[in-house]
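queue> pop job 88
queue> type: inverse folding (structure -> sequence)
queue> payload:
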């Protein structure tokens, strides 16, 4: 019943899904994706999208990479050697009972991705020739588990440091009642390139001292320091065909980087700020958000540490800090909500859950009320918000209602930390699509039926909490952080004179060529919908998802890491020997089909992930995608699963589908 209703909305010709780009806009989007002369990036601050000349982007990148005190070119990918070193440390630690087997499995990364460098343009510094903030994308890298594990130990220590600021509300709470003496200066300092300015030896020494405060064994403490030393000394990345090693800094993309930088700056403050005799005479308050410092003082600190440099702003009247504007009025600090540089709010007709579109303006009004000291200043900022959101298609009546609702709050009410209730329901996280609300309704409607399935009832004790992540938008599509000019193209597994033709073809060298369905496309077993094959493949191609068809029209989707001809030979053997454990063999026997009637073709070749990772895992995901897309799960097709019941398997396929397929 559940599967039938889901299929009904999935294949309904009148389902509520439509493209929000015209054909001309799609054409322009594809041209921009292929244009190697420009590089489209997210700005370092704000919501702006920056279109840069590729030559200037690369020039800025190489300007930084040519700094031999920070970076060193490598001859090859060092991943295998690093992996061996990590495994050796983890194994010794496990044998000494310092970590559990679970910790070992978490820290070990058998299929790491290659860390990749990209730059975020600092257009707030220079609009015409912006410097770039170097960020190493380490998601899935060999260092990510180590970094997460280490951060779990260091983050609580970083939160307890003397000058620590959690966020803007924390900052407002700490300074809103501050009384200023006459002539006091509001000051802010920025640590120039903090992440790339911490010497490895100094940083490791600081962390070792900090770990002394934890009640852990000396051996375990040394293990944590070894993890940090590996992260710092082996921190490599890939850029434009070359591997580099970072010699001094910690990459901004590392999970442990904020805690590491916070603790290093705390040690710096203990040595050169709090212990300075001038501090007691000139400092009224001192707070820091990683590398952004707010204080009331007039002294220079640049001479204490040669690698740590500060840029300072000060005023007796007003100062910007974080996302608020502070002004001095009658000996007190008055707060103003600082407008963002680009009012790039979502359009009211944007493809997002309705509750998000309804709550977005209200959240911004609350944000403005929280960051302003009085209602007069709030009214000024909120009127600007009404103008901004009106341009995005929101009705003025709705916006005015939100404005008045937020106005009724006092600032101190909005500054209170929100206590999150413990959620016992297991979240089911999927990518939002046009059918997501209907799927949620179906699951809620038939939850009592789904609970009769043993595996689902064991997995979900209560109704799953349906949570959504957004699908890819135009910015995600155009701002790819891969090597400029090296976007992946359809793979061709043969040599040709001229442009090769994509599709499935016979290899001409095996006994199974006679059953191959030849062509550049394949059809849906039920609807007849055509799909393109985006590679030239044949019987000898490995790492493929394939489609089998029987004479009665039913389909079977499978995958193999070996060549297709080897897998087809196994299917034919099962049919000949009537191996009933195989759904293909069982169906052929029951229907009276013969081996000679079996037809097959490759529908997708799964290439090795460009930046590494498990190719086999990706192959399994693509198989699951095509099982759902082509509706080959029994009884509509020949696919079965012994480990999961039809209900559980359908729910699993649904989750995968919503995660990877945007309607």
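queue> result:
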């Amino acid at each position: 019943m559940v599967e039938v209703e889901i299929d009904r909305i999935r294949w309904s010709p009148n389902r509520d899904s439509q493209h929000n780009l015209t054909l001309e806009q799609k054409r322009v989007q594809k041209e921009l994706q292929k244009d190697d002369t420009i590089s489209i990036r997210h700005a370092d601050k704000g919501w702006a999208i920056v279109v840069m000349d590729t030559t200037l982007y690369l020039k800025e990148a190489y300007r930084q990479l040519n700094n031999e005190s920070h970076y060193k070119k490598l001859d090859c990918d060092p991943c295998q050697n690093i992996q061996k070193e990590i495994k050796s440390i983890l194994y010794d630690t496990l044998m000494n009972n310092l970590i559990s087997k679970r910790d070992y499995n978490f820290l070990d990364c058998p299929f790491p991705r290659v860390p990749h460098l990209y730059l975020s343009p600092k257009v707030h510094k220079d609009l015409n020739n912006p410097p770039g903030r170097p960020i190493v994308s380490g998601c899935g890298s060999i260092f990510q588990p180590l970094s997460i594990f280490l951060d779990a130990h260091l983050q609580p220590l970083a939160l307890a440091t003397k000058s620590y600021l959690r966020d803007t509300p924390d900052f407002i709470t700490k300074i809103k009642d501050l009384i200023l003496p006459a002539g006091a200066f509001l000051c802010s300092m920025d640590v120039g390139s903090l992440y790339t300015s911490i010497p490895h030896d100094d940083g490791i020494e600081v962390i070792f001292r900090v770990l002394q405060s934890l009640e852990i064994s000396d051996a375990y403490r040394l293990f944590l320091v070894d993890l940090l030393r590996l992260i710092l000394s082996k921190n490599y990345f890939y850029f434009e065909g070359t591997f580099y090693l970072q010699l001094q800094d910690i990459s901004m993309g590392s999970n442990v980087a904020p805690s590491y930088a916070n603790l290093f700056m705390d040690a710096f403050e203990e040595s050169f700020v709090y212990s300075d005799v001038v501090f007691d005479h000139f400092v009224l308050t001192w707070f820091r958000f990683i590398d952004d410092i707010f204080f009331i003082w007039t002294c220079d600190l640049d001479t204490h540490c040669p690698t740590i440099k500060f840029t300072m702003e000060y005023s007796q009247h007003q100062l910007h800090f974080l996302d608020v504007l502070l002004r001095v009025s009658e000996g007190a600090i008055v707060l103003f909500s600082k407008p963002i540089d680009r009012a790039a709010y979502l359009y009211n007709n944007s493809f997002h859950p309705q509750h998000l579109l309804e709550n977005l303006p209200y959240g911004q009004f609350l944000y403005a009320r929280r960051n302003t000291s009085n209602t007069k200043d709030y009214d000024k900022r909120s009127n600007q918000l009404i103008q901004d959101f009106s341009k995005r298609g929101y009705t003025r009546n709705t916006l005015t209602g939100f404005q008045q609702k937020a106005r009724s709050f006092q600032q101190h009410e909005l500054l209170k930390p929100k206590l999150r209730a413990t959620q016992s329901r297991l979240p089911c996280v999927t990518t939002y699509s046009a059918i997501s609300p209907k799927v949620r309704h179906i699951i809620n409607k038939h939850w009592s039926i789904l609970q009769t399935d043993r595996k689902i009832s064991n997995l979900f004790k209560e109704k799953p909490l349906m949570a959504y992540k957004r699908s890819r938008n135009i910015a995600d599509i155009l701002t790819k952080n891969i090597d400029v000019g090296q976007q992946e193209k359809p793979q061709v597994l043969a040599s040709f004179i001229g442009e090769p033709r994509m599709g499935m073809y016979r290899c001409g060298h095996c006994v199974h060529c006679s059953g191959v369905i030849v062509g550049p496309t394949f059809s849906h077993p039920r609807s007849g919908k055509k799909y393109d094959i985006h590679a030239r493949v044949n019987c000898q191609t490995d790492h493929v998802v394939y489609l089998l068809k029987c004479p009665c029209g039913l389909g079977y989707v499978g995958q193999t890491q070996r060549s297709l001809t080897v897998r087809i030979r196994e299917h034919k053997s099962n049919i000949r020997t009537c191996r009933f454990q195989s759904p293909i063999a069982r169906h052929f026997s029951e229907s009276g089909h013969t081996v000679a009637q079996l037809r097959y073709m490759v529908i997708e070749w799964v290439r090795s992930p460009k930046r590494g990772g498990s190719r086999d895992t990706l192959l399994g995901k693509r198989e699951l995608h095509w099982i759902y897309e082509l509706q080959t799960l029994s009884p509509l097709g020949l696919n079965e699963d012994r480990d999961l019941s039809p209900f559980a398997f359908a729910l699993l396929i649904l989750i995968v589908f919503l995660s990877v397929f945007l309607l």
